[in-house]
Amino acid sequence: MSLGGVKMIDWLRFGFLSRGKELETQPESRPENFRHCRVIAVSNQKGGTFKTGWTICYSRLFSDSPRTYAIYGRYPKVAIVGMDPACGVERAFGLADSMLERIKNTSLPAVLHHPDVDGLRPLPTHRIVQRFQNIHLYPATPGLSAYDSLMEVLAAQHRADVDAAELKRAEATSSRLRETRLLLKRFVDAIRDQYDRILIDSKPGEGELNLATLLAADWVHIPTLLSDASITQARRRADLVTEAAKMNPGLQIMAVIPTNLHKGNPRQRLWLAELSRKPSTPMKPDLSGWVVSPIWYNAHIDTIVENAHSRVYRRPLQQAVGVAFDQVLRMEGAYDRR
């Protein structure tokens, strides 16, 4: 009997405790391109949709799963790139506000503000936080808001130059805006060969920072609450993905993850059905092909996420998000096999 390509006897014997040992199994056959690192933007227009929680849960399960071990022949390496000035994922990794203040000169905002230094190569000076064995965090700090503001100012200046028919100035501001938008992509490309997955924890809302995140990504995961407002915002994020795909042709929505489903809430089931079928009007983006099993409401989900590194919480983590994770992993594998 086997489990995801790993012999059951090996699973029972080693489980998740054999971090330093190789299971005596052969990797599943797969096309060469499945080994390539994929960059995933975890994104939604609305806040509070379990975006940061999904980033941590996906990275934890992907880096420490018998199924991914069977695919890669080893435990995959994952990087999380923080792009949310609210620093939710950074605090989940145990970084206090005082620590975020101390590392502001060696964190991602400093790299983006100083593109001429070593920051856009794999940074020897860049602060990497490692809480889980195979997961590295490239943290954001609240100073990332300044980078977002810089891009918004450049975008406004470019629009003003176009409206005023200042062609030379418009061309200059367009070039500078394009380079600024691509700074994150250049940084991600510089570290891509070190990892098997890179997840970008993006900020809610709209704006240039979110566009830069999508330009750096290959795939997009959209967690969404089962409510009218949240699904509307998820569709708006899908529209932004469509616009970004004109500048980043490889960009693809890979999964829509419904979250916080309550058993006793019939309205949520109606919204889940609405999300899972094709829209009645072509004006709305069709997300039905990417919807996975919902993550059920769990009063202890925050505790599970915060302690996802602990073996004690490994089983609750699998129970909370394991079904959705398995479906997303199958969808990603099917896409890579096209």
Distance between the termini: 29 Å
Task: Give the proportion of residues in helices.
Answer: 40-55%
Q: Can you identify the CATH class?
A: Alpha Beta
Percentage of β-strand residues:
5-15%
**What structural category do the secondary elements indicate?**
alpha/beta
CATH homologous superfamily (4th level) name: P-loop containing nucleotide triphosphate hydrolases
Q: Give a short account of the largest sheet.
A: 8 strands, mixed
Radius of gyration: 20 Å
The average pLDDT is 76
Shape: globular
Low-confidence stretches: 1-34, 116-125
User: What is the count of DSSP helices, taking H or I runs of 4+ residues?
Assistant: 14
Tally of individual domains: 1
How do the strands line up in the largest sheet? Answer: 5-6-4-7-3-8-9-10
Number of strands: 10
Task: Return the CATH topology.
Answer: Rossmann fold
CATH architecture: 3-Layer(aba) Sandwich
Order of helices and strands: EEHEHHEHHHEEHHHEHEHEHEHH
Overview in brief:
This protein is α/β, with parallel strands linked by helices and 338 residues long. The chain has helices spanning 8-14, 51-63, 66-72, 88-92, 97-102, 108-113, 144-163, 167-181, 183-191, 208-216, 228-245, 266-276, 301-306, 314-336; strands at residues 2-3, 6-7, 38-42, 78-83, 129-132, 135-138, 197-202, 219-225, 252-261, 295-296.
Report on this model:
The protein has a single domain (35-336), classed as P-loop containing nucleotide triphosphate hydrolases (Rossmann fold, 3-Layer(aba) Sandwich). It has 338 residues and is an alpha/beta fold. The strands form two sheets. It has an eight-stranded mixed sheet with strand order 5-6-4-7-3-8-9-10, sandwiched between helices. The protein has a two-stranded antiparallel ribbon with strand order 1-2. The protein contains 14 helices and ten strands. Strand 9 (252-261), helix 12 and strand 10 form a beta-alpha-beta unit. It is globular, with a radius of gyration of 20 Å.
